[in-house]
Design goal:
There is one protein chain. The protein is of the alpha/beta class.
Length: 250
């Protein structure tokens, strides 16, 4: 999945119809690969089963949380491919989306957990469906640490300390209404209205043809401005290692 995200972002940079065009936006949502319909998950987090196998952890399914925590613990010591997977996700996906030179929108169509949440947080704006699905930082429940990249991204994108404390330290599950009230998302819509609303908002942010165009728009300067705004999380995602100590500076 991470490789597919990297390939998709590469298309934005290299496709003949896109690479010389400033007037574009990006929407990220969850689609069922079999029938291309909206599915019930936006992002369900890292593949814990794969992580456990990668760490050669033999813990039984009855102790899945402990096994997952052990896998992440091993990753922080660079003992298995999990660290390489997380670092690739951080540096080539999250850091890239965080600083793309155009508006990025997450249309959260269902459960948005762990790495799925970090993918949404990397976007400029987040809209979520009502009625079903929740947002969660699950690390405290699973006995995991965040790692520096995920921690700094959360701190940069969640402005309310009380929300950050509640979300991270209690692994609270936020409904769309709670997420909106907490400032985690920017809007909520019934599922049938979610993507159309995200699309309208994406179009409204086109730099050259919106109602409030950016007269001298420069994509390089726009990327650099995003780097300046979210400098700490960009540096942690782009250059940080899973093995970095919790108290280390990036």
């Amino acid at each position: 999945m991470i490789s597919l995200l990297v390939q998709a972002l590469h298309v934005i940079d290299t496709h003949p119809l896109l690479n010389h065009m400033n007037n574009k936006s990006l929407i990220i949502t969850g689609i069922d690969q079999d029938d291309f319909k909206i599915c019930k998950f936006f992002g369900n987090g890292l593949d814990l089963e794969w992580m456990m196998k990668a760490s050669n952890n033999q813990t039984t399914n009855d102790n899945g949380g402990a096994a997952a925590a052990a896998a992440v613990s091993a990753a922080t010591k660079n003992e298995n491919p999990t660290s390489q997977m997380i670092e690739m996700f951080n540096s080539q996906v999250l850091a890239k989306i965080l600083t793309l030179p155009f508006r990025t929108v997450a249309a959260i169509n269902g459960h948005c957990i762990g790495a799925g949440l970090f993918l949404a947080l990397a976007c400029d704006y987040r809209f979520m469906r009502t009625e079903r699905g929740y947002i969660q930082w699950p690390e405290a429940r699973l006995g995991m640490r965040l790692t520096k990249g995920f921690a700094e991204l959360s701190k940069d994108k969640i402005g309310d300390y009380a929300v950050l404390r509640e979300g991270l330290l209690t692994a609270k599950r936020y409904t769309s209404g709670e997420a909106l009230a907490s400032g985690i998302i920017d809007g909520e819509y019934p599922l049938e209205e979610l993507y159309p609303a995200a699309f309208r908002f994406a179009v409204e942010g086109l730099p050259e043809t919106s109602e409030n165009p950016l007269d001298y728009f420069d994509p390089k300067a726009y990327t650099e401005m995003k780097m300046e705004i979210w400098c700490t999380s960009y540096r942690a995602l782009k250059f940080g290692k899973v093995s970095d100590l919790p108290h280390s500076r990036i």
